[in-house]
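Reading a protein record of the kind used here takes only a little practice. Think of the row as the fold of the chain written in a discrete alphabet. With that in mind, consider the following protein and its fold in token form:
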Amino acid sequence: MGEKRVFTTGEAAAVCRVSQQTIIRCFDNGKLTGFRVPGSRFRRIPRDELIRFMRAHGMSTAALEPGGVRVLVIDEAPAAERLAGALSRDPRLRVSWAGTLFDAGYAAAQMRGGVVVVASRVAGSEGVCARVSSGAVGDRARVIVLMEPGHVKQAGAFKQAGADEVLPRETEVSGLVERCLSVAGATGRAKER
């Protein structure tokens, strides 16, 4: 669906993971705009409008942006899921997360480059940093470490282990998005295609 410019209501429903009837209802009451096929009752939704609608309702647009930078967030499960959800709102990123080292190792092995964001509080995070940055699991990925306030003295150790960036845990999501794009070499991309 990454190259598709106009969607049927059924296709839009599949991308949004809602029923086709929900899409039709949103179209008919003006929450989702588009056009009707002349001489029929069929509705069509332009790509830009579908992206706008999805963002307005907190839906991930990753299905529409297959060329985005892959990002893997490694942290304790609830925090990893929250951060991944916040990062995935940017259409330039394709985000997944892992809440255990086992899941992190498996997910990192599936990545083809991209960026791994790891929290310093995760036990074994220095080892994850070293293995991912060396290419020992999957293709060589860039690594950003989010430092907990009490772990600042470890920043040098993470740099030695291969971290590309070491940022404070409190870094705003928009700043983290820009750092992900920067270390991945994708800062010149337009926000939408």
In short: Residues 187-193 have pLDDT under 50 and may be disordered. Strands lie at 6-8, 35-36, 43-46, 69-74, 93-98, 115-119, 142-147, 165-168.
